[in-house]
């Protein structure tokens, strides 16, 4: 006597296998999207830190421009944005008319503490500031 399998048993196994493969593909797509989002956020925060460093450099240039007899070193720091916990600081060193500005921009909204640094070398001749280099530092 033959045992008969119910119709649809193979169809049910096939549907379960296809659903498992589809779930795996969906999981892989979602996980790659999450890592892309994290990378995108890091790039954005790095750009914010660079902008903060450049902004502090501009403030330091304004301080040199405003004060003919600037005595160095001069250090200052400023909060930029409380939401992203970004801030900047600068130090002006050198002796008139030759100055060096070291600026740092920091963003620490999610505990990663992203830091970007800028160094500017300049010379002041009368009211004119001659910038010799404006470079990002490691």
Task: Describe the protein in words.
The protein is 42% helix and 36% strand. The chain has 138 residues and is an alpha+beta fold. The protein has one domain: 2-Layer Sandwich (Pantoate--beta-alanine Ligase, Chain: A,domain 2). Strands 1-2-3-4-5 form a five-stranded antiparallel sheet. Strand 1 (74-81) and strand 2 form a beta hairpin. The radius of gyration is 29 Å and the shape is rod-shaped. The N and C termini lie far apart (82 Å).
- Shape by Cα distribution: rod-shaped
How much is the average pLDDT? Answer: 85
Biggest pleated-sheet summary? 5 strands, antiparallel
Order of helices and strands: HEEEEE
Q: Which regions have little confidence, pLDDT < 50, spanning 5+ residues?
A: none
Assess the beta-strand content as a share of residues: 35-45%
The assigned CATH architecture is 2-Layer Sandwich
SS elements, strand count = 5
Q: Structural class of the secondary elements?
A: alpha+beta
CATH-assigned fold name: Pantoate--beta-alanine Ligase, Chain: A,domain 2
Give the helix tally. 1
Distance between the amino and carboxyl termini: 82 Å
Q: What is the helix content?
A: 40-55%
